[in-house]
Amino acid sequence: GFRSRAAFKLLQLDEKFGFLKRGQRIVDLGAAPGGWTQIAVDRSKSDKGGTGQVIGIDLLEMEPVPGATTFQMDFTIPEAPARLKALLQGPADIVMSDMAANTTGHTQTDHLRIAGLAEMAYQFAVEVLAPGGTFICKLFQGGAERELLAQMKKDFATVRHAKPAASRQDSSETYLVAMGFRNVAAPAAA
Ligand code: SAM
Q: What does UniProt list as catalytic (predicted)?
């Protein structure tokens, strides 16, 4: 079984977009209790061990997920992206963030906070993603994500909003799925 109901959101996003594949290197931001991590391991690693790699980080302690490397740290401190990069054995195929700060009850504050986490996740993603890679992150509709969206559309072939059925209909939670990373930082071919 899965450790979280959130697991079904990732499965539904993958059903729609088909980004999970064998042999991938996947970074899971806000991984606890580990539902997305379980799916990432299941889909990326072959029965024979395979070449996939799954790394997860969360503010909270989490039970280890066999086949994944997870650690407890606040993603927003500089040590966190550095540690993730040190663990990566090559460019990432997927950076996915289900991070959500504890809600304050003040809608605007909550939206800004989650948009801030999404922006940091994005900055990290463009530094580690392989060409063709995928970035997924949780957002709230009405959040301060307009600039982020504009940037994403430059950096990726496709950027889509999606609300998986497993996401409560009365919540404004939504996901952004960006596929086909263009790796604009790399020198263009002559
Ligand atoms: N995808 C997970 C799963 O399937 O089990 C559920 C993730 S849960 C909705 C959001 C997680 O984001 C929480 O565990 C929370 O601790 C984490 N989080 C929030 N802010 C964070 C931060 N600054 N750094 C790391 N993790 C953070």
A: 138
Does 108 reside within a domain?
yes
Within 8 A by CB and 6+ apart from 114, the residues are: 99, 100, 101, 138, 139, 140, 143
168 lines ligand 1 (CB under 6 A): no
Q: Is 21 in the pocket of ligand 1 (CB under 6 A)?
A: no
Cα separation of 43 and 22, whole Å?
A: 6
The count of structural domains within the chain is 1
User: Distance (Å, rounded) from C-alpha 43 to C-alpha 86?
Assistant: 23
- The single residue of 138, 153, 154, 163 carrying the catalytic annotation is 138
Ligand 1 atom at shortest distance from the alpha carbon of 117: 23
Distance between CA atoms of residues 189 and 174, nearest Å: 36
Compute the radius of gyration of the chain from its Cα atoms: 16
Q: How many A from CA of 95 to the centre of ligand 1?
A: 14
Q: Catalytic: 138? A: yes
Asked whether 75 lines ligand 1 (CB < 6 A), one says yes
pTM of the model: 0.93
Torsion, CA 124, CA 128, CA 130, CA 134, rounded to 10: -30
What is the CATH number for 11? 3.40.50.150
